[in-house]
Amino acid sequence: MKRNQNQHKPKIFNKVFLTSLTLLTLTFTTAQNKEPLYKDASKTTKERVDNLISLMTLEEKVGQISTPLGWKMYNKTKNKKATLSDLYKSEIQNRQIGGLWGLLRADPWTQKTLETGLHPKEAAKITNAIQKYAIEETRLGIPLLLEEESMHGHMAIGTTVFPTAIGQASTWNPDLIQKMAEAIALEVRSQGSNVGYGPILDVAREPRWSRVEETFGEDPFLIAELGKAVISGFQGTSKSDLKDGKHIAATLKHFAAYGVSEGGHNGGAVHLGERDLFSNYLYPVKDAIDAGVLSVMTAYSSVDGVPSTAHKSLLTNTLRKDWGFTGFVISDLYSIEGLYQSHHIVDSKEDAAAASMNAGVDADLGGEAFQQPLIQAVKDGKVSIERIDEAVRRVLTVKFDLGLFDNPYVSPKEAEKLVLSEKHIALAREVAKQSITLLKNENNLLPLDKNTKNIAVIGANADMMYNQLGDYTAPQPEDNIVTVLEGIQHKLPNANITYVKGTAVRDTTQTNIPAPVQAAKNAQVAIVVLGGSSARDFKTEYQATGAANIASEGDEILSDMESGEGYDRSTINLMGKQLELLQAVVATGTPTVLVLIKGRPLLLNWPSENVPAILDAWYPGQEGGNAVADVLFGDYNPAGRLPVSVPKSVGQSPTYYNVWFPERRDYVEEDAKPLYPFGFGLSYANFEYKNVNIDVNEAGKDSKITINVEITNTSKVDGEEVAQLYIRDVLSSTVTPVKQLRAFERVFIKAGETKKVTFTLTPKHLALYDVEMNHIVEPGTFKIMIGTSSEDIKLEDSFEITNPIQL
């Protein structure tokens, strides 16, 4: 019996074992077939990110934080359908990249033309194909961040081109700039990209610097207000907006203090004290972080000897620990390699990768440092896997928050309909109109009479479409752009309009001054359009970073380009024979209007003394010609205000208004005041300020100071006024500015009407950094100055703060 029982035991055991094995196999198979948690849209972003990271190899993680150049990832020849390139498939399969920069970019540097680049419908098809391949042909199916230049319109073919940032700042209208940013975001997202580079928050106090046009000017407060407007326009006002197909993640540029490099050299060393850095250059950045910007880009420059891309104190301590930034930090193009190629603080790509990663850089733009060099740095113990996971988590979080794992594709038909819509074209015209600044209007020459029959339109920038679009602009069909000449022709179709170029911006070999002089003599008014240009051409040579190499004076014909990335200047005169041309036209005695199209402040001493009317249009974008014509002929009353001071000489530079005490003394040759101060701009209307009222409500950090002022339009013309409020801390423990902008309002006032304008100040607007670098409002007297510019103060008053307020 026992033997028989023992004989039966193995049979029973085998049956149980086989049943259990079958169940285990079924369970394992079911688990294999079940979608992983990170693909479950009902889970939180954190749960999905944590799950995905737990499944990734080191190589996949490093791939996620690499962002190669995008325009190489498709092939298209003239009249041919665009297809994915073998390079893209290789990058996905071998490097498992997590994003692309400038996939839809087109310009002479990328060698993408109207024929070989992508128009909106084609762009949407390619981005769909890019995402489809990444999702379906990789182990984990992670979609890509597709990042695009977006500061004054999406830098792609067939998109809406708005005024450059310096023109946007001249509007002094954050609400309008938010609408513009919403339009740009819609165009970017509808074509399938999902990250926009902007806002650019560099404080520009050096007019020789090549990238002034990309900035909101010299004042931290104005920059901060406009920067927040761009972030809201790009990202929406709630987290859920990121998934609505209309918004994109914003990338703040350039961290930190990029706009004040030594000698105006792009990417040169920055020499700042800690108090100046935090009081001025980081002021708008802190506001952007508080506004929820999702990405921050480092700068090429160094700050006090530490390259921005390896600046742990700023990238980790300030951004993360002090300010609570939760997005990701990305290097500027090749700036990680720049740690050893330019700054010489390390001697290998591996050490550059380690230095930047350990400092707080989460993603690499364009370079290869965050590939094998970073992987080797991890293996060599120079970078911890925890730090890699941290960086990957930040990038993946943005991808999930954008909804890319659940809805990565777009409609090509919708892209074709939404990009460059009539609504966006009208908005581009509105931004351009509000940006135009009237610098002089002697004897009310402007607005010009629409019954004028004979008009001479003269100058290098009167009919050069790319000269009015600025840097970071893609090739555009000519029908999309309205030049100043065309705008005037549209405005006065029955007038006799004679156009003579006369001379180029820089080149002097083709100058013909007698022809425009004769045109002016035969005209009732001469409209002379001069300035500068950031227009790149296909003959220009470019650096690896995309900055242009300066054309040599020995070249047979010089390009017009004298501004834009890489084109720093030692003087800021009108180049070439432009001033000579202007002087010759004015000498005819014909009433002359100077229209300036340019990217940086230029010396205007002679024009300011001798030309009766001057308009500054900066780079006004595709509708610039119509906007200028609207202002010239009175269909729009200008209210643009300068966001930068215009010096009288290079020797005055820097000429910014909010200098620290003591006030500037005059030079031997000239006074220290600018030719045109910050905030300056004229109108066809006149305004009177009166009745200031101040209410102080002290409540610690919740304190509010409310200031009311009445403004009356005393003219017979409706117009807009830009009321500006400046403050001065009368007595402080550390040195503070002689005045600093702390509120402004652009307000429309009908002829004869009076409006009350209300400004509200909070402790942040009054605070300083004391001797211990505490951010604090000190008790004492604060002077307020209300006026039409930093120099033209109409009303003054003061208020008291009785208790210290620690921020």
Automatic annotation (TrEMBL):
InterPro entries according to UniProt: Cellulose_Degrad_GH3 (IPR051915), Fn3-like (IPR026891), GH (IPR017853), Glyco_hydro_3_C (IPR002772), Glyco_hydro_3_C_sf (IPR036881), Glyco_hydro_3_N (IPR001764), Glyco_hydro_3_N_sf (IPR036962), Ig-like_fold (IPR013783)
Which protein, by its recorded name, is this? Beta-glucosidase
Mention one GO biological process in which this protein takes part, according to its record.
Answer: glucan catabolic process
Signal peptide residues are none
Please state every residue range assigned to the domain named Fibronectin type III-like. 721-790
GO MF term list? beta-glucosidase activity
Look up keyword Glycosyltransferase and say if it applies: no
Per the similarity annotation, which family is this?
Answer: Belongs to the glycosyl hydrolase 3 family.
By its UniProt entry, which PANTHER family does this protein fall under? BETA-XYLOSIDASE, PERIPLASMIC BETA-GLUCOSIDASE-RELATED
Recite the UniProt keywords alphabetically: Hydrolase
